[in-house]
């Protein structure tokens, strides 16, 4: 087991250990937000036949050869074809047919003239200009041919993909499973949100924050409850978590006399891969894994996060979230980062990377980063107000007002520099 | 009613008409992703009492005045206080107490010395350095005082907000309602995805795409089904939609003889505000509103979108989505835009703004935009492959390879220029 590693080393360890989960078959509706485990090829031809792209008149282009500025051509209206309809018979030379968008082209017709270019005179239609063969016709298979690859494995199912699948009549899909994430809190001082806070007890808010973070990252949270500071209680709950893909324990993986989680994990056969990451908030992070419970299936991953609310949330962001995204088959697993200009100086000791909770504001074309206030690891308010986490590098001791710094964007809306539509 | 207006004018009309919906009370868990309709103030003091920020020893700082490089101070261990525990009696001068993170400070103690700085010798604790009063103590109310404003109206409930609310023991919230969006398809050629496509019929994929877009924008889709091209059938379905906040009809608001939706809407009392937006795909867009059904409640908004799948989806993006976000109380309602360099030239006629489906790729520090292929409004594949919509301005006729253009980002992951963590 390695101790006191950097954030980047710890992320690399976690991502190497996180398996891509197997596939399950879901209805298209239930698969929204999931990642395709196999490609989808077309089983249909779209459009199914040559059809009109516009409302107008189906013609034989040769019949309009004489139309032009010099004179109109008048042709008899033979019949009408609506979308979903079928021509009653082929179009004979010298005839035209009324046709609507999406309707199949009558046999014999080779062009469509849009209705805005035409006048009618009783049963006759007057054409003032020529047509080219193929005008306003969508060819059979132009949008999709049989066997065309329409979606690749690894694509996320969003609205456009749902539309493609519906147009193929496809109702089920193979997508990667969501990770099941067992959440454990530990500490004799903790009570549930509806519990009695007399005597200095505090609400176990971490499991609520971490459950929401798990859902936001596409995982399914399972709540193991609050374990008392007692090895037997901790062991019973951790055993229940072994059926999950990931166990996230907040509190209890530190070095205090009362921190039993680590020793219980090891006694259950968990191999700890690292303990301690050179970051603040959040130094006391542990990561390990169990051997597979059943042959061929990956073993449960275990994250031991610090107990302070902000530390728990920030370490989840850095380590658990990327793992959960990878497990679902996603290719981009890190939060986006951008450069922002600090509005004030920051100081710290060297040695640990600090994640400073910041608000982002626009000034002209540049972004400004400002601390959201009290950076104590107990103050969730300054996390709740933050658009992102400013990266104050491990070896740096001072950032000046006006310095450019990297900000990890945790609230994607902060990327919207303006909320204008556009002028064009 | 105005005709043939610009995209920006149409968006301004829609956003002015869209009401901010009223509030409903939900459990915190059910409120994830919603927007707060009223602020939340603290009803607790956090920490509830002065407590230790670390695992270590509670002391009276004055007792360690003699400790330093010159010599150690040895003091007797009086008792232990764990998190969730209470000191059995005040700490007398000359005594120290074992204390753990989050545990309440014993009366009489005024500092905590972290355990790494201490050695123990049987019942005595050896201190090699002085302590300052207040060291490693978190003061009562330091994180939250009674009455502190913790969340503002208009904030979106995400994981950090859930954590803040849990720590207050708060279980319910007042948030803005989600808009109910009734979706109608129209056309005799349409069948449901499991329907028979013989005879050139096509799947009504729009309602699936638009339902997914509605859900992604926080709305609740209600499906009114496929209306035949018949005024009575259309009227029956539209009447059912009047109970929704928004009606979205795809197809049937054009100028063809078979497009009855517009006349039925007007006969039902809908006031059309505009018809026709100078854009491609998607010119034939209509927007209107009904008078309020009940006094004081806003009337149903109606969007008539074109029938071609890409046109329907792109016009939903431009007009329906911003309205749905505003209705939920969100302040930023437009997609983010960025500048990207075209990898190839584009041509068009002047007069309409074109939204060109593009893929975004990174090259060094700049973004490249490349058409995803066939831009026909029937080809959902080129929308499904797109990261965004390149804005080809209405009056422009040519963009050269290498030109910078505005891209509206529809897939927020495209904003992630790299998927590195960071080195720091």
Report on the structure:
The structure is a homodimer of 424-residue chains. Chain A has 424 residues and is an alpha/beta fold. Chain A folds into four domains: 171 residues, 3-Layer(aba) Sandwich (Molybdenum Cofactor Biosythetic Enzyme, Chain A); 56 residues, Molybdopterin biosynthesis moea protein, domain 2; 88 residues, Beta Complex (Molybdopterin biosynthesis moeA protein, domain 3), CATH 2.170.190; 79 residues, Beta-clip (Beta Barrel), CATH 2.40.340.10. The first copy, chain A, is built from seven helices and 29 strands. In chain A, helix 1 crosses helix 6, helix 3 runs parallel beside helix 6 and helix 4 packs across helix 5. At the A-B interface, helix 1, helix 2, strand 16, helix 3 and helix 6 of A face helix 1, helix 2, strand 16, helix 3 and helix 6 of B.
Amount of helix of chain A:
10-25%
Indicate the multimeric state.
homodimer
Strand content of chain A: 25-35%
Number of domains of chain A: 4
Radius of gyration of chain A: 32 Å
- CATH topology (level 3) name of the largest domain in chain A: Molybdenum Cofactor Biosythetic Enzyme, Chain A
Query: Major β-sheet of chain A, in short?
Result: 7 strands, mixed
Please identify the top-level CATH class of the largest domain in chain A.
Alpha Beta
Distance between the termini of chain A: 58 Å
Shape descriptor of chain A: elongated
- Please list the strands of the largest sheet of chain A in the order they lie side by side: 1-19-21-22-18-14-17
Question: Ranges of chain A with pLDDT <50 over ≥5 residues?
Answer: none
Tally of extended strands of chain A?
A: 29
Largest interface: A-B, 115 and 115 residues
Query: What name goes with the CATH superfamily of the largest domain in chain A?
Result: MoaB/Mog-like domain
Annotated CATH architecture of the largest domain in chain A: 3-Layer(aba) Sandwich
- Mean pLDDT of chain A, as a whole number? 89
